[in-house]
Amino acid sequence: MKLQSFFTCILIFLLLSILHLVSANRSDQAGFLQCLSLRLNDSNIVSRVIHTPNDTSFSLLLASSIQNPRFSAPHTPKPVLILTPVLPSDVQSGVKCSRRFGIHIRTRSGGHDYEGLSYVTHNKPFVILDLSNLRSITIDVDNRSVWVQTGATIGELYYEIGKKNQTLAFPAGVCPTVGVGGHFSGGGYGTLMRKHGLAADHVIDARMVDARGRILERREMGEDFFWAIRGGGGSSFCVVLSWKIGLVDVPSTVTVFNVTKFSEQSASKIIHRWQFVSDKISDDLFIRVMLQRYKNMVRASFPGLYLGPVNTLLRLVNREFPELGLEEEDCKEMSWIESVVWFAELGEEPIDVLSKRTRGSLAFKAKSDFVEEPMPETAVSKLWRRLQEPEAELAQLIFTPFGGRMSAVADYETPFPHRKGNIYEIQYLNYWRGEEKEKYMRWVERVYDDMSEFVAKSPRGAYINLRDLDLGMYVGDKRSKYEEGKSWGVKYFKNNFERLVRVKTSVDPSDFFCDEQSIPPFRSVEVI
Fold this sequence. Notes:
Blueprint: H1 2-40, H2 43-49, E1 50-51, H3 58-63, E2 81-83, H4 88-101, E3 104-108, E4 126-130, E5 137-140, E6 145-149, H5 154-164, E7 168-169, H6 180-186, H7 193-196, E8 203-209, E9 215-216, H8 218-221, H9 223-228, E10 239-246, E11 248-249, E12 254-261, H10 264-277, E13 285-287, E14 289-294, E15 297-306, H11 310-320, E16 331-334, H12 336-343, E17 363-371, H13 377-386, E18 396-401, H14 405-408, E19 424-432, H15 438-450, H16 481-493, H17 496-507
Parallel strand pairs: 2-4, 3-4
Antiparallel strand pairs: 1-2, 5-6, 6-10, 7-11, 8-9, 8-10, 12-15, 12-16, 13-15, 14-15, 14-18, 17-19, 18-19
């Protein structure tokens, strides 16, 4: 009888504890909402910035830039609020109030985080700080620079540059709907990478809100902080409001081309030779390899960009890479900004198509690798066979060449360390329709396992902008958060991980800005 009473008391205690926690969470959320309303201090601003689940537009706003529908299922955790700041001070208010009331923040720019971490968390109440209203772009052609707000997409940035000048460009990614915030803060590469390096290499200033709610620029934040947000993943350190970037020169005429092969034997020989040429040929030439299915057949495509006219391109390729079999009818001359539209596979549309925001319609899973030595043709053949499997109907394997400027920048100059010594990077992608996902995700895992002996080791590297939670995430085990984070942090950042941790410890010791794979402080302490 006494034992039964004891267990009854324990049960009552647990129930009261749970009720207290629920009540505390509701109280924190109410306090957070009140704090924001008071700080914004204008009913019109409040209605534009604060969106609760009771708002009729809440669901549409939540879904507006979810680029991976894998994280938009009914059971996916939803935010308690969505904030859409219209002024930098609104971001300050969001940070200060969330810190005061213990509400977790996820910052969303374009919604392209491969694992949905810019708009989902599974272990705590959270708000989304959606920066889509902060998207202004100010171009200074004379000084060859741009201030671009974090909520803009790289397509919008390209479009504004293209309208102003046909011989200035910016070296960033291929997909125009990617937000500049995540793209720049993770490194950011595209068709100009061999000539000009990463997007992060051309960031010359930034404005951000730190963990204390202060707005800082480069001169106030210091060089270590500025170094960290240019490749270390800005969401680990602050909310970047805007970026000042330097533009680069491009010729008035560039040439795009594509060669396609459906024969495994022919494609394998070209890919094999590509591995010895693609990182060493002229820096003006960028040639990718794409393997995927087309009408139930596997095909290899070799899309490319040459910074010059077609006749010069043909002489170069016929001399250095005749195996490609490039002919004049495979090529098309155009302006650089038109080449951006072409590479985004947007057809013959005018360049203003780059400014359109669209959502991803297919769920996907991705992984990445870096390659330091050419793989044998047998490995290419194995990839070809994998793409013939039923669950690979919408899969893609993308080989992106390095070399050129990528090898000239030291691996410590920005947090992105995968520079000299890498021939190319591989991205393994699989897309699918519907709710079923396991077999498609397992396909990516099998291909990734197949490649283990042919890719960089010690550590096996990965690219933070192609985030992969399979590498690990915080689970709160007996190790310190630093020890947990190191297990995947060195794969993204190699030796730069330790410096990133030192910066994090200095600027955000209480670990206010965090997610499942964020940079940890050496020791989390509460700072008021």
